[in-house]
Design goal:
- The chain is α/β, with parallel strands linked by helices.
- Among the domains are: 128 residues, Rossmann fold (3-Layer(aba) Sandwich); 95 residues, GMP Synthetase, Chain A, domain 3.
- Helix content is 29%, strand content 24%.
- The chain has 15 helices and 24 strands.
- The strands form six sheets. A nine-stranded mixed beta sheet has the order 2-1-10-9-11-12-13-14-15.
- The longest helix has 17 residues.
- The chain is globular and about 70 Å long.
- Adenosine monophosphate binds next to strand 13, strand 18 and strand 19.
Length: 508
């Protein structure tokens, strides 16, 4: 027996090699990762954490948080990272729903979360993080220091749960996606091979680590490859620009790339030695892709995944990275495009809902057997809810979420098609198209547009797309905003737009 994911990730790790360079300049070696995670695992075991117990953590992005993730793996617990932006009320739901044994928080929230602990019976602990003052805070990190640096990892199989990640819940209640040891390991293996990560890579890590992108795609891939990371607490433009010359790869959400392009210091020289920029979590505009290449000579590699499935598709490392597409299925992953209702495959090139199967696909939603059953086909394919099409060369295009589908006058309208047309118009920086209740049509198409220049004329924009799109697809209104609402992963929050515009056509 082994501890499937941990053993897999540390396979061939060189203890003397650097794993992370912290903001203050301290370097953490692989040996230190190994030792510190063993020490923290002992604290977890003393807190009576048993294999399979959920350990919830809402902690800032520090290297100790990475040790905690690994410590959970080592003692067989299920790691449950939580967005640092969640309020106490939101947190109470996650703790209650998951039945977490332990909630680990930042010392400054300890007081505020006491009530959750009392109400749910979940023990409250703080993690603490390295700083110049040491750990004199009673935190788990302080208690872990000085312990033995060896433990025997608790046996775990491929199918045992390694983590539960709650979906971002931009529609409906957040659901806990159960991810097995092998879901995570198989995906890291596929990515290391595909993106050609090696020990000599240095990943610029500016993503949050409560999400699949920053935690699993970035950290697991680095661990498995034996490479190192420059571990920034968040995306700070100055810090990223300062550290790019020391890095070889970067993983980012599209807003990282648009923000870099908005800065004059970001040029060819700064990234001359970089070997790979990866983008995901939200669509990268084709324009951004093109501008990035013009500015830097690099073609961003866009990939596509989700909390429930880890990564599904990726543009090729060696072949053509095609703007506006998310590439091909990863090795071992199968995708198909189906009609939402019948589940039958659509014709080549047509739009439908993307379905996925493979070792990356999660085990279901925690405590939601009916929801789980509704989102899997009988042959094991998971219904992603992403509308997509596969072009004649096999590249997958994501054209929106099925929940974003607009039905106006009984006709199906895919917002992405309209957004692409709008984005090409003079004076339009970007756009988001939503369906808004309408007395005649059921839903009406409304375009929310961010202008790139003050002179943008909504009528000219509408006229510009007039001959590109059938009349029923053309927006009934253009709503001008300075900025689209986005969540921390860069996703446009269409639910926020829909709420704001809900009464636009109301007759009351
Ligand atoms: P999350 O579970 O928070 O990672 O969100 C997953 C969703 O993000 C997917 O279902 C897609 O709708 C979207 N997404 C992720 N990567 C991409 C991408 N490269 N292009 C378009 N949408 C993406």
């Amino acid at each position: 027996m082994t501890n499937h994911l941990f053993d897999g990730l540390f396979y061939e790790a060189d203890p003397t090699a650097p794993f992370a360079v912290l903001p203050q300049g301290r370097t953490i070696s692989y040996q230190e990762v190994f030792d510190s995670s063993a020490q923290l695992a002992q604290v977890l075991i003393e807190l009576n954490v048993k294999p399979g117990d959920r350990v919830a953590a809402q902690v800032p992005k520090t290297i100790e948080a990475v040790f905690l993730y690994l410590a959970c793996l080592r003692c067989g617990a299920t790691f449950l990272p939580l967005n640092t932006a969640y309020t106490a009320a939101e947190l109470a739901y996650f703790v209650e729903d998951s039945g977490a044994k332990l909630l680990i928080c930042n010392p400054e929230n300890e007081q505020a979360y006491q009530e959750i602990s009392t109400a749910t019976g979940c023990r409250l602990e703080t993690l603490g993080a390295s700083n110049d003052l040491g750990f004199a805070d009673g935190s788990m990190t302080e208690r872990a220091a000085g312990r033995a640096t060896q433990i025997v990892n608790v046996d775990r199989d491929a199918g045992d749960l390694a983590a539960i990640l709650y979906t971002s819940g931009t529609t409906g209640r957040s659901k806990g996606a159960m991810l097995s040891h092998d879901n995570l390991l198989s995906n890291a293996q596929a990515l290391v091979e595909l993106w050609q990560f090696t020990r000599s890579d240095v990943l610029l890590h500016a993503l949050p680590i409560f999400h699949t992108h920053g935690l699993f795609v970035a950290v697991n891939t680095s661990l498995l490859a034996g490479s190192s990371m420059i571990f920034l607490p968040s995306f700070n433009l100055d810090a990223v620009i300062e550290k790019l010359p020391d890095s070889s790869t970067m993983m980012g959400v599209p807003t990282f790339y648009t923000r870099l392009l908005g800065d004059d210091r970001f040029n060819r020289d700064l990234v001359a030695h970089m070997r790979l920029f990866v983008s995901g979590s939200a669509p990268l505009l084709a324009d951004t892709h093109v501008e990035f290449e013009q500015r830097t000579g690099h073609r961003v590699l866009e990939r596509y995944g989700m909390t429930e499935t880890n990564m599904n598709t990726s543009n090729p490392f060696d072949g053509e990275r095609r703007a506006g597409t998310v590439g091909f299925p990863l090795p071992g992953v199968r995708v198909r495009v189906c009609e939402a209702e019948s589940g039958s495959e659509v014709l080549q090139g047509e739009v439908g809902v993307l379905e996925v199967s493979g070792p990356n696909v999660f085990a279901g939603y925690w405590n939601m057997p009916e929801k789980t059953a509704a989102e899997f086909r009988s042959d094991g394919f998971f219904i992603t809810g992403d509308l997509s099409r596969i072009d004649e060369d096999g590249y997958v295009h994501i054209v929106g979420r099925s929940k974003d589908l607009i039905i106006s006058g009984g006709l199906n309208i895919y917002p992405k098609e309209i957004e692409l047309a709008l984005d090409e118009q003079d004076g339009v920086l970007e756009s988001a198209v939503v369906g808004v209740p309408h007395p005649d049509f059921g839903e009406a198409v409304v375009a929310v547009v961010v202008p790139s220049s003050a002179s943008m004329d909504p009528d000219a924009v509408l006229a510009g797309i007039g001959d590109q799109l059938a009349r029923f697809k053309q927006p009934k209104r253009i709503h001008v905003v300075e900025e689209l609402p986005r969540n921390t992963m860069g996703k446009v929050q269409k639910n926020v737009l829909r709420d704001e515009l809900n009464d636009l056509f109301s007759t009351n």
